[in-house]
Every structure is written in C-alpha cells, then in structure tokens.
Design brief:
Strand content: 15-25%
Low-confidence stretches: none
Shape: globular
Radius of gyration: 15 Å
Mean pLDDT: 95
Number of helices: 6
Helix content: 25-40%
Distance between the termini: 35 Å
Number of strands: 5
Largest sheet: 5 strands, parallel
Strand order of the largest sheet: 2-3-1-4-5
C-alpha cells in the first residue's frame, strides 16, 4: 500500500517529533523546513514563492510513490488550510491511502517549544500568531479527500 500522511499544525506542535516517532524502514519523511533549507542553506530564509519548496516536496513524493508499492510518505509542513492541503493533494498521484494528522497545542506550549529548538529554527512569535489566526481544520467539503483524519492534542 502507498500511504500518504500529511502532518498539519503550527510550528512547535511537534510535527517533526511525531513523524520521527512513526517512521520505519518503508517510511520517508519529507519536511518543508528541510526542503527549504536544501534550497536556501538557511532555515531563517522564507522564499517569496513557497510553491518552489512545495513543488519540490510534491516531485519527491510522486517519485517515491511511482517506484514503491509498499511505502509510507510523511509530509511535514504546517498545512494551515484547505487551499494549501489541496495544492498538494491535487498534484500528488498514486497514493492508495491518505491520512491527515492535525497536531494541536495551546499557544503557551507552542511558544515554549519554539524556543527549545536550535536558534536557527526559531519562528518569530508574530509569525506564529499570524499562522494561528489563519489555521483552519478541514472543511466538511474536504473530508472526502482523506481516508482518515485525526487530531493529536499536545500538552507539555
């Protein structure tokens, strides 16, 4: 089975930690942070057109899905809303099973975790707050795009 898992959540909710915790030999993690770093060589640089990063993630996902019958691909990104999630889902081909995992935490936990990261990976607090305002769970019109949706609530 070719399984695709989208990890959605604000910076500091534990998406990367969650991805590492479920990884096995047939699992590949594709991170927007690491993909962006491969392009810019600096975690702090946000590209004006982030679709460059997203398209590179999509290309890698499609390549892996096309060449493996038994694989799990975890996409680690914020996936703040249906528009961003659909951007990926419209372009990814060949997944037999698609799961959305929404990681959620209160703002105090998010901000504290953000500052536990290496300094070069810190996200400015105003950016996190702005992302928090834009985050939306999947709309009822989008439920059909997933085989399974789950929320993981993080509490430190």
């Amino acid at each position: 089975m070719r399984k695709l898992i989208l990890l959605a959540g604000l910076p500091g909710t534990g998406k990367s930690y969650y991805a590492q915790s479920i990884q096995d030999e047939n699992c590949h993690i594709i991170s927007s942070d690491e993909t962006r770093f491969s392009i810019t060589h600096d975690y702090r640089i946000i590209l004006e057109d982030m679709n460059v990063v997203y398209d590179k993630m999509i290309d890698k996902t499609n390549e892996l899905l096309a060449t493996n019958d038994n694989i799990t691909i975890i996409l680690d990104s914020t996936f703040l809303d249906d528009k961003r999630r659909n951007y990926f889902l419209d372009k990814i081909k060949g997944a037999d099973y698609i799961q959305l995992v929404m990681l959620k935490a209160n703002i105090d936990t998010i901000l504290a975790r953000n500052h536990k990261r290496p300094e070069e990976k810190w996200v400015p607090e105003d950016v996190i707050l702005s992302m928090m305002e834009r985050y939306k769970d999947p709309s009822p019109d989008n439920f059909y795009r997933y085989n399974f949706i789950k929320a993981v609530y993080v509490n430190d």
